Structures are given as structure tokens and as C-alpha cells.
Amino acid sequence: MDISTVNALTYEEFLDIFGNVVEKCPIIPAAIWSYRPFKGLTDIEAQISDFIDSLPDSGKEGILRCHPDLSLPAVSLTRDSVDEQRAAGLVRMDSGERALLLRLCARYRQRFGFPFVICARANSTESIGRALQERVSGERAQERERGIEEVKKICSLRLRQILQPSAEPGASANKL
């Protein structure tokens, strides 16, 4: 989809297409729709980033809470999350690896009050596990900001899938 097509979308069409670029947060694309016409992909990304950055800490944590825990059964995930977790290899973990990941995710959620968020598509199962083990002992404010930066990476990749559908999945992950 090119930017002129994006700029011509009705509000409802825009929400239908961009409603999950930030996991289960259609209010974000709803809020930036009024900034049309967008100059391009980077303009849309900047508008989303500025909106997220303008939120109070409680709003940022709300965004993080919209994300699923890693390695949940696919029935509880959005299609985007299933694809991203599959790309990271999370669906191919053995039962022992899955149990460890679920325990670490539960510990992280209990400590911070929001799930561990990482751009799965830009990581492997191993790097996700290492990051989770490292970050579970972090400070709340630092983890909130790290999580939000990961949300922005996820959003960027999802936007690229919409606006550059011919690009290889994950190809832009190395450009972040």
C-alpha cells in the first residue's frame, strides 16, 4: 500500500488496517489519523512514537499490558503475535524450554505488573531467553521504557508489512 492510498483511507478503513500495529491498542492509530496527510512511513512512525511518548507512565504500562506473555497458546494471541513468535522460533521450543520461559515471564509480570515485551521477530529464542533473564532483575521505570522501545520496534515492523508488503518478512528487522 502506498502513502497516497493510506492518506485516502476513511477513519474506519484506517482503523481496520492499522488497528493492531500497537498490540490491541486501536486508540493509537485512531489518535494519529487526524495528522493526515502523512508524508510517508517514517511520518506515521513518528506520530505513533510521539503519541506513546506523550502518555503518562500509567498509559505506557497500559500499552505493555496489552501484549501477551511469550509462548502462550496460539488461541490467546493475535494473528500478528502468532506470526512474530513463530518467526522467533518460540513455537518450536520443547516442553522444558517452554516451561522455563513461562516461569520467567510469570516472574517478570509479578515483579513489574506488566508482561515482558520484546520484538520477537528481531530475536531468536536464545536471545529472548537471555534478555528475559537479564531484565527480570531490572528496575520498574527502566523496564517500562525498555518495553516501550520494544513496542515501537514491533510497531515499525508491522507498519512495514502493511506499507511494504513485498518486503521479505523480517528483512527490515535488521534495519532497526
Overview of this structure, please?
- Helix 4 (41-54) packs antiparallel against helix 9 (140-163), helix 5 packs across helix 9 (140-163) and helix 7 packs parallel to helix 8.
- This protein has 176 residues and is an all-alpha fold.
- The chain has one domain (3-175): UraD-like (Orthogonal Bundle).
- Helices cover 60% and strands 0% of the residues.
- Residues 167-176 have low confidence and may be disordered.
Outline of this structure?
The protein is mostly helical and 176 residues long. Helices cover 60% and strands 0% of the residues.
Layout of secondary structure:
Blueprint: H1 3-8, H2 11-18, H3 27-32, H4 41-54, H5 57-65, H6 79-88, H7 95-112, H8 125-135, H9 140-163
Tell me the name of the CATH homologous superfamily: Oxo-4-hydroxy-4-carboxy-5-ureidoimidazoline decarboxylase
Counting DSSP H or I runs of 4 or more residues, the number of helices is 9
CATH architecture: Orthogonal Bundle
Determine Rg (CA atoms, Å).
16 Å
CATH class: Mainly Alpha
**Helix content estimate:** 55-70%
Instruction: Tell the overall outline.
Output: globular
How large a portion of the residues is in β-strands, by DSSP E? under 5%
Uncertain spans, ≥5 residues at pLDDT below 50? Answer: 167-176
Instruction: Briefly note the CATH topology name.
Output: UraD-like
Measure the end-to-end span: 21 Å
What sequence of helices (H) and strands (E) makes up the elements? HHHHHHHHH
DSSP, total strands: 0
Q: Kindly state the mean pLDDT as a whole number?
A: 91
Estimated structural class: mainly alpha
Number of domains: 1
Main beta sheet: strand number and arrangement? none
